[in-house]
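Structure (tokenized):
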């Protein structure tokens, strides 16, 4: 896919994203429509509550009046208007006041319950849309940090070679590849924001190679080697997923491992079976370890303040786990100690 096609794909994906004003499937998404819909439903509900409550109130007063006749030794069924007076009705004011207070209280409670129900029901899509928008901005900002750092490193290399009259053609090709990778990442983020999941057979050895190439400039800058190993035939390690999304996941784990690996050490990436139906990618560093509660690293905006120079925003591993979940896999800490940490990405093999 060339750059023009990738750009078009990104624009098409952007056109299909969830907009806060379009929550709930309304055609034009204007706030006035939502307010009008809530107002209409509340009006109907109020009318129903008032009519039903009024009928109950009137029946209560009437039945109360009949009891008043009985209490005075009169049979209301045998009486005529002429015998007992025109429009005469005996009502106990205490009962009438009690019925009135009860009626008003029931109406107030019913209106409160109905109003809360409809408000929550109609505002929920908006809240979800705003949450998705907020998450997308945070995710995109974080996911673009690594390729931007790689691009910055390549620009430094271009300047270094240009000043010494060395060839920069190869670095320029790598730079173009980094830009294409950024376009693919943005497109994948937009697709994920819509909740869409498109899968296809993906060879994991290719994903690993692409991910290693993406972070190698950062590893070189920090003096860390990246070593890869495949335990088995690479042809067999194929999963159903998205190449870009899986690469994002592996890059995030690699970036975390490189950031915590001591200088002049190696980060090892191993591809192999976990069970007969699952494949595992393990990323091992020689850092100081995570300590207690490794699960905290997979919570959004959780930061591992371990004293290293690398203090991120606590999104990388959370996003990586989201990608793994999207494709039916898992991401966890397989082991950690003072000698290093191993992250494990497990995915079901394609059938």
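Design, position by position:
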């Amino acid at each position: 896919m060339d750059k023009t096609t990738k750009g078009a794909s990104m624009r098409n994906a952007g056109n299909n994203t969830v907009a806060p004003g379009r929550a709930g499937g309304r055609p034009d998404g204007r706030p006035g429509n939502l307010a009008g819909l809530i107002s209409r439903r509340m009006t109907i509900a109020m009318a129903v509550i008032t009519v039903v409550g009024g009928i109950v109130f009137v029946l209560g007063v009437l039945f109360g009046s009949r009891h008043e006749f009985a209490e005075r030794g009169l049979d209301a069924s045998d009486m005529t208007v002429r015998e007992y007076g025109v429009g005469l009705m005996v009502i106990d004011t205490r009962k009438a006041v009690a019925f009135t207070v009860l009626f008003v209280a029931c109406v107030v409670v019913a209106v409160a319950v109905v109003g809360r129900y409809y408000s929550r029901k109609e505002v929920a899509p908006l809240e979800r849309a705003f949450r998705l928008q907020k998450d997308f901005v945070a995710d995109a900002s974080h996911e673009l940090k690594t390729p931007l750092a790689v691009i910055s490193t390549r620009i430094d290399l271009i300047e270094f070679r240009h000043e010494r009259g060395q060839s920069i053609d190869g670095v320029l090709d790598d730079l173009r590849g980094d830009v294409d990778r950024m376009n693919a990442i943005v497109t994948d983020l937009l697709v994920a924001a819509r909740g869409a999941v498109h899968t296809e057979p993906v060879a994991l050895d290719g994903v690993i190679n692409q991910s290693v190439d993406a972070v190698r400039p950062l590893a070189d800058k920090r003096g860390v080697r990246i070593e890869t190993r495949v335990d088995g035939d690479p042809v067999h390690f194929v999963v159903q997923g998205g190449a870009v999304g899986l690469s994002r996941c592996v890059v995030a784990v690699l970036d975390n491992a490189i950031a915590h690996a001591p200088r002049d050490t190696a980060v090892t990436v191993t591809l192999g079976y976990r069970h007969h139906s699952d494949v595992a990618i393990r990323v091992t560093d020689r850092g100081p370890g995570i300590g207690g509660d490794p699960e905290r690293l997979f919570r959004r905006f959780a930061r591992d303040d371990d004293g290293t120079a690398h203090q991120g925003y606590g999104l990388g591993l959370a996003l990586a786990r989201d990608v793994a979940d999207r494709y039916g896999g898992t991401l966890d800490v397989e082991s950690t100690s003072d000698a290093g940490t191993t992250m494990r990405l497990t995915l079901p093999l394609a059938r």
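Reviewer-requested clarification: The chain has a mean pLDDT of 75. The first strand starts at residue 200 and ends at 203.
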